[in-house]
Design goal:
The structure holds two protein chains of two kinds. Chain A contains seven helices and no strands. By secondary structure, chain A is mainly α. By secondary structure, chain B is mainly alpha-helical. The termini of chain B are far apart. Classes of the chains: A mainly alpha, B mainly alpha. The interface between A and B is large, with 83 and 78 residues.
């Protein structure tokens, strides 16, 4: 389990680089990183379906100019990982698999907002790197440019890695216990909500393409 | 081309570095450091003298922000202008700054509406629809993310590569080329196709997964979620609302 958590967090850190720091070839979208994590943990199908549902929810999230949206990547990575790591041990019947997934989804959703706050802090810190580089260039130390660039990239990776490591290892212990407290009626309702998830995704997609 | 200092290999190096544009994105000057990082090999080649090189580095550490893919057009233009200046042409440093500022803003707008606003949602929707409809019957549903990556990155890499080459060759005249590409029409037509796709998926799900009476619930939820989303209620809140309503409903029925 620990090896799996570490691997997934490492991949999660790399994927979160793609959000803005390096490349933006869109491997960071939930529809791609869901299946990647699924493949890693040996259940591609779950990764695909959760990834697609999350992608539809965040299909209209765009970063224009200086605005930073909630982070979809970290939610997709933690959500898919937690579902796969804890679902095995719970041995849920077909009836309550959906309700458990809804619980995981509901609890990982705020992580995107928290991650965004950390991201904003880091981007404020980056301004200091630029001032440092200003001084170094006046001194004539041009090599500092490359160093600052790679160090900042590394910090972006470290942020994603540590955040998903903490979130996943906490979730692995908290989620199954929390789930066992839920009463029967709630489970039935949550299962129904899971079946309705495509309606939510399609509604958001519909609004996005109608031009809001 | 006669007496150019920058050759093709230099442009390739700029292209590979261009992925790092936002590595030190900050609220103060946004992509300033990234732009300088991309351009550094060219500046090093153009200004062998130490003093001039330091000056050129300082000049490019100014506010800069644009769409990350279209930044390559500006990298191409600025590389050419710097080259002309280094050879003793009439280009002035203020001119380069002005080009970066004005064209950066324009390309930022085009890029945001084309890539973030139209092309990525469109390609992502195709992949999502493939997964949601076909996951149960079709073994090859794992192809959907690959289709998304391939479709999306086709236009993405085309913009990066072509933008850099055209920017370098044509300088600021590259804007005229953009007009010919009918970007707005592409955005509009993909919007219509996407709307049709969404509605089609809705119908398929409704008649395949749900019983006769449940179809009405499904449709009612879809319509009310569309309305709520129009009133700027965020998707996370809608998710919690959906869970709440179905839990309460489970107790009542």
């Amino acid at each position: 389990m620990i090896a799996e958590i570490l691997t997934v967090s490492f991949i999660g850190g790399l994927l979160s680089l793609d959000v803005s720091a390096w490349g933006q070839i869109m491997v960071s979208r939930p529809i791609v990183c869901g299946p990647i994590i699924g493949l890693l943990l040996g259940d591609l199908k779950t990764g695909l379906i959760i990834g697609a549902l999350l992608e539809l929810i965040w299909i209209n999230v765009i970063s224009v100019g200086a605005a930073i949206p909630p982070d979809a990547t970290i939610v997709a990575v933690t959500c898919v990982t937690l579902i796969m790591l804890t679902e095995r041990a719970l041995s849920l019947g077909n009836n309550f698999q959906g309700s458990y997934r809804m619980v995981v989804l509901a609890l990982t959703m705020p992580l995107g907002e928290i991650f965004k706050r950390i991201d904003i802090k880091q981007r404020k810190l980056n301004a200091r790197f630029v001032h440092y580089l200003d001084r170094e260039i006046i001194k004539g130390n041009l090599k500092a440019l490359e160093k600052v660039n790679y160090f900042s990239l590394f910090l972006f990776f470290l942020k994603g890695f540590l955040f998903s490591l903490v979130a996943i290892s906490m979730g692995v212990y908290v989620l199954p216990k929390l789930f066992s407290y839920l009463p029967y009626g709630t489970l039935v309702g949550l299962n129904f909500a899971y079946r309705l998830m495509p309606a939510l995704g399609l509604a958001i997609a519909f609004n996005t393409f109608r031009g809001l | 081309m006669p007496n150019r200092i920058i050759n093709k290999i230099d442009l390739y190096r700029l292209f590979w570095r261009s992925f790092c544009l936002q590595a030190v994105w900050n609220f103060e000057r946004m992509q300033d450091l990234g732009f300088l990082y991309i351009l550094a090999p060219v500046l090093n080649k153009l200004y062998p003298e130490r003093e001039k090189r330091i000056q050129s580095y300082k000049r490019h550490l100014e506010f800069f922000n644009t769409h990350p893919y279209f930044a390559n057009v500006l990298v191409g233009i600025v590389a050419r202008l710097e080259e002309e200046m280094a050879k003793g042409g009439e280009v002035k440093p203020e001119e380069i700054s002005a080009v970066k500022m004005s064209m950066g803003g324009a390309f930022g707008g085009i890029g945001d509406s084309l890539f973030w606003g139209a092309w990525r949602p469109f390609t992502a929707l195709i992949a999502c629809v493939l997964v949601i409809i076909y996951l149960r019957q079709w073994e090859g549903a794992w192809l959907a993310p690959l289709i998304f990556l391939f479709l999306y990155n086709f236009l993405h890499f085309y913009t990066r590569i072509k933008g850099m080459i055209e920017g370098y060759e044509r300088k600021t005249k590259v804007v005229r080329l953009l007009k010919r590409m009918y970007y707005l029409r592409a955005i509009w037509s993909s919007r219509l196709i996407s709307l049709a796709l969404v509605l089609l998926t809705l119908l398929v799900l409704m008649f395949r997964d749900w019983g006769v009476r449940e179809r009405l619930y499904f449709l009612a939820f879809f319509l009310s979620l569309v309305l709520l989303n129009r009133w700027r209620i965020s998707s996370a809140k809608l998710l919690y609302l959906l869970m709440g309503i179905s839990c309460v409903g489970a107790y009542i029925f």
